[in-house]
Amino acid sequence: VPRQCGLLCSQNYPLYIRSVPTENELKFHYTVHTSLDVVDEKISAMGKALVDQRELYLGLLYPTEDYKVYGYVTNSKVKFVMVVDSSNTALRDNEIRSMFRKLHNSYTDIMCNPFYNPGDRIHSRAFDTMVNSMMMQVC
């Protein structure tokens, strides 16, 4: 079960960050921002292969003692970061991948809204509901 979900634009400022539970929110913000170097490293390592791929799942960015940090990048260089408990061994790679796909589909719905300005923070009840249900589901 993800502890935190973050969307960052191509310039690396947050579009959306959600933490469950909220008491360690600052620590999770730090974790998401420290993962950006690893995301950029993986993107540059993939290079031209990334352009040809439709699947932009970066996999495990790095593990810590308490958490595992996963990454995903869209074609428009929006970065999705998910922080998961290290103790959760039931969560498989393909489940993380499907969570990112679901997140990407919801993000696409927001981008299609004519009242949303790309680059603004995301304030959407539907997006919040989707993220909350994803974070609360028992794997």
Tell me the series of helices and strands, N- to C-terminal: EEHHEEEHH
Q: How far is it from the N-terminal to the C-terminal residue, by CA?
A: 7 Å
Mean pLDDT: 84
Query: Which fold does the CATH topology refer to?
Result: Beta-Lactamase
Share in helix: 40-55%
Uncertain regions: pLDDT < 50 for 5+ in a row? Answer: none
Number of helices: 4
Q: Mind summarizing the main beta sheet?
A: 5 strands, antiparallel
How many structurally independent domains?
1
Q: Based on Cα principal axes, name the global outline.
A: globular
CATH class, anyone? Alpha Beta
Q: Total strand count, please?
A: 5
Strand order of the largest sheet: 2-1-5-4-3
- What is the CATH architecture descriptor? 2-Layer Sandwich
Q: Measured on Cα atoms, how large is the radius of gyration?
A: 14 Å
The helix-and-strand class reads alpha+beta
Strand content: 15-25%
Family: Belongs to the TRAPP small subunits family. Sedlin subfamily.
InterPro entries: Longin-like_dom_sf, Sedlin, TRAPPC, TRAPPC2L
Main location: cytoplasm
Subunit structure: Part of the multisubunit transport protein particle (TRAPP) complex.
Q: How would you characterize the overall build of this protein?
A:
- The protein has 139 residues and is of the alpha+beta class.
- It has a single domain, classed as 2-Layer Sandwich (Beta-Lactamase).
- The chain has 4 helices and 5 strands.
- It has helices spanning 25-46, 48-52, 93-111, 125-136, and strands at residues 2-8, 14-19, 57-63, 67-73, 79-85.
- The chain has a 5-stranded antiparallel sheet, with helices on both faces.
- The radius of gyration is 14 Å and the shape is globular.
- It starts with a strand and ends with a helix.
- It is found in: Cytoplasm, Perinuclear region; Endoplasmic reticulum; Golgi apparatus, cis-Golgi network; Golgi apparatus.
- This is Trafficking protein particle complex subunit.
- Part of the multisubunit transport protein particle (TRAPP) complex.
- InterPro entries: Longin-like_dom_sf (IPR011012), Sedlin (IPR006722), TRAPPC (IPR007233), TRAPPC2L (IPR044760).
